[in-house]
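The pair is quoted verbatim underneath.

:::
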Amino acid sequence: MDPEKAHHLTFKLIKSPFTALFLRFLYKHDISGLERKVFGLKFKSPVGLAAGLDKDAIAFNQLGDLGFGFIEIGTVTPLAQTGNDKPRLFRLIEDHALINRMGFNNHGAAAAAVRLQKRKDPSVLIGGNIGKNKVTPNELATDDYVKCFHALFDVVDYFVVNVSSPNTPGLRELQDKEPLKKLLDTLMAENKKAIQQKPILLKIAPDLSDSQLDDIIWIVKSSGIAGVIATNTTLSREGLKTRKSAIDAIGAGGLSGLPLTKRSTEVIRYLKQNSDNAFPIIGVGGIHSAKDAMEKLDAGADLIQLYTGFIYEGPSLIKQIHQALKKKTA
């Protein structure tokens, strides 16, 4: 089945009360003792779902029932947009990977906010991943992020600034030192107007050089944001098992999954060591086993997120990671 059609069918199934009840029964497990307090929030488990799967906050309640400690919705933009032309999601089964060029397809921040008001379990924290509309020029991008920030402020527990997706033209230019500092400073200024501020995190690409990562460390420290999510998808196609002709036929897009495991862990370790553990890190990228998860945590991640690994391995992966965590702390 076409991967995007499979995604929508899966969401319809898990939204069914019968399916939701069955999944809760099948994958229910004990997560007591796994709590983590990070950037002032209490996570009942350090295992979360990365942005990109539940873009429009449609199935966050049902996904939370599978054992995730937190769910990140989005990326949402101020205005609804259809995203890039289809097909735009591709499986690389030999590599346990995906290539996507979705292009921030979503119903808009306001629509997501309405759905998030129906949260059933407040112990499953919600992150709001925010971006800019495709038609918004970079010089006006900050306005888009501020609009999303205000639209979601009352219904999410933390924010993620996404400037690292490769699928919106020019977006990664916002990772450059000056525009990124301006963007984060503006959002922090808006945040400080609130009686109770929300943590703001920055999601970065795995393709950054060491000098660019040094800039990220400086920006995070100087802006005062809460932390970093490392990493988003990669533009690299190195070391893939899938035939080059098949890769070339797919074309542009961000690669996620098992081929990203090593690089994302390297970025986590670099940030942790070279910042002197100055800020929390959420590790994401190529977690397909409990071993992968433990490597991310050992490298310095305070929390981890699943995406492609969850798609390939299923909800049992969450349980396996929890069991490994319990064994380690026993």
Q: What stands out?
A: Residues 177-191 form the longest helix (15 residues). The two ends are 43 Å apart (CA to CA). The chain has one domain: 31-83+106-235+258-324. Residues 31-83+106-235+258-324 form a domain with the TIM Barrel fold (CATH 3.20.20.70).
